[in-house]
Design brief:
With about 170 residues, this protein is α+β, with helices and mostly antiparallel strands. It has a single domain, classed as Glutaredoxin. It is built from six helices and nine strands; from the N terminus they run αβββααβαβαββββα. The strands form two sheets. Strands 2-1-5-4-3-8-9 form a seven-stranded mixed beta sheet. The termini are far apart.
Length: about 170
């Protein structure tokens, strides 16, 4: 038992958060799923559009709410810059619907409870919170161009000012 505690302590000392394998210049994986209103969503609807695809851990949590509301509050500027905004988490359609309604989110949220998109974009992995190590969704945003090429990967998201990171 002591060996397990020592190895866990050693892991915490050398912990390096997982980051997606994708980088600028890579082709984005196919995006498919159901939105908060239960309608199918897929990459075909994004052809010829610039996309901000943001992955977040969980609806109605402080950081995720701050991020979604920052994108909502800056939605006109993002639209003016030509972006389509799409959020993804492992929450259900019903939870997404409640979250989107509660905060008047003007963009689709894709429900990914089976984590197909989360794994396809490689945003599931080990992370650390308050000294505890666990697996979860890594808050990551992909900016994708009109041809489906990733132009920017934001792995260190500032939830309260995420729009500035996207538009810089």
């Amino acid at each position: 038992m002591l060996d397990k505690l020592v190895s866990l302590a050693e892991r915490k000392l050398v912990f390096k958060k997982h980051t997606t394998k994708f980088k600028a210049g890579d082709v984005a994986p196919v995006i498919e799923g159901l939105t908060q209103d239960g309608t199918p969503f897929d990459s075909n609807s994004l052809k010829g559009k610039k996309v901000v695809l943001f992955f977040y851990p969980k609806d109605n949590t402080p950081g995720c709410t701050a991020e979604a509301c920052n994108l909502r509050d800056n939605y006109p500027a993002l639209k003016k810059a030509g972006y389509t905004i799409v959020g993804v988490s492992a929450d259900s359609v019903k939870k997404h619907q409640s979250f989107a309604t509660k905060y008047s989110l003007p963009f689709p949220l894709i429900a990914d409870p089976e984590m197909k998109l989360i794994k396809a974009f490689d945003v599931w992995g080990e992370k650390q919170f308050m000294g505890r190590l666990f697996d979860g969704i890594l808050r990551t945003t992909f900016v994708i161009d009109e041809q489906g090429i990733i132009t920017q990967v934001i792995a260190d998201v500032t939830t309260s000012d995420h729009t500035a990171q996207i538009l810089k």
